[in-house]
Amino acid sequence: MADDNNMSINNIRTEAYAAYVNKDTIRSHSTSGGLFTLLAERTISAGGVVYGAAFDEDLHVVHTPVRSLDELDRLRRAKYAPSRMGNTFAEVKALLEQGTPVLFSGTPCQVAGLHHYLKLDAPTLESMKSSEGMEELSAASEQMCTDEKVKSHKSDNEVGAISINWDRDKLILMDLVCHGVPTEKAWESYLKFRQQEDQQETLASEVNFRSKSTGWGQYSVSMKYPSGYEYSCKSHYDSYMIAFVGNMILRPACNKCQFKGVERCSDFTLGDFWGVWDLKPEMNDDKGISTVLVHSEKGKRIWQELCKKVISEPLTLEESYHLNPSMIEASAVHPMRDELLSRIETEGFAPVEAEAAKIRKERMEHDAAVEKANRSLIRRVKRKVKRILYS
């Protein structure tokens, strides 16, 4: 159940909303409803720093600080690849000690890791030691923080995070509804695979996993190359997305994630409101709707500020994950995951592509059959309308 894994230390009931920013220019550049942008703009306007996932020049995903609105677009949109944390935790702590506001956004395990590093959650995480929670936190930190420099400073970081001598209201924690994180090797091998398939001399220079060029509900993956060539494919046909959503290339730690549930140590949780067409059809314009969970009193105060800039409707907690079970459940282990991850090391993306191709073929055949049936239905309706009009 959603409440079985309660990480909240706030002792308040989480509130849930369906929401989107009432500014289309923000929504069009966002994964779903644009709420992250509002939180980020608020922080930057207060002289603060926003940490989130950005692509570097080699298309590695790196947790990156942003201090101006001009830089903010780097942190928008989902990145379905592991984010290198570097010295982020230590940097956040130093900024807070200087009195600088910080918005930290990341996966639930990253946010829980920072929460633990800053010693904000000692009572709650202490109780998790009897479960796999602390094991998962260590695994997440070890796999997310791959920088050797970070590993060499690990003991210093642990010692340095004992006392709290900063204003807790200066820190906003925002996590995501997370399906899981692919391995970095899977992502790197896919980039090389796409380069070969697209017959390009270099790797792609830009990636958008959640292009709304085909709508929010049936979003596309797009890649741009220095040559000007652009690859674009609906996500349910793209090999990487088939493998990602199908759990073929997820990190092993993700399949036993202990950071699920609707009660969390963050102030906000953001995700796609899949199921809006069933529960709130009047809100669905296919431009992106977010699920927003507000977990803390601080979060509720901020949400009241943001409400002036959003269209929102309250949800029950059950409605918030109606068609997005990643909110409350870890992804299942794919039976071929271990084999595929092992083969990627020596064979590149080819083994994954072979499995994805089978699924893509089935989907294309199904979609073609549906389209044919729809065309036939339209023809029949037109004929019937003509008979009625001219009889």
Describe the structure concisely.
This protein is an alpha/beta fold. 40% of the residues lie in helices and 17% in strands.
Domain count: 1
Average pLDDT rating: 87
User: Please, how many helices?
Assistant: 15
How many angstroms separate the termini?
A: 59 Å
Global Rg: 22 Å
Overall strand count = 12
Strand order of the largest sheet: 4-3-2-5-6-10-11-1-12
What does this structure look like?
40% of the residues lie in helices and 17% in strands. With 391 residues, the chain is an alpha/beta fold. It has one domain (15-345). A hairpin with a 5-residue loop joins strand 2 (49-55) and strand 3 (61-66). Helix 4 packs across helix 6 and helix 10 (239-245) packs across helix 15. The relative contact order is 0.17. Residues 1-9 and 123-162 have low confidence and may be disordered.
What's the arrangement of secondary structure elements?
Elements (H helix, E strand, L loop, with lengths): L14 E7 L2 H5 L6 H11 L3 E7 L5 E6 L16 E2 L3 H10 L4 E5 L1 H10 L4 H6 L5 H12 L3 H5 L1 H7 L10 E6 L7 H14 L8 E6 L8 E5 L5 E5 L4 H7 L22 E5 L3 H4 L10 E5 L2 H10 L3 E6 L1 H4 L16 H11 L2 H41 L1
Helix pairs in contact: 4-6, 10-15
Key terms for this structure?
single chain; 12 strands; 9-stranded mixed β-sheet; alpha/beta; 391 residues; disordered N terminus; 3-stranded antiparallel β-sheet
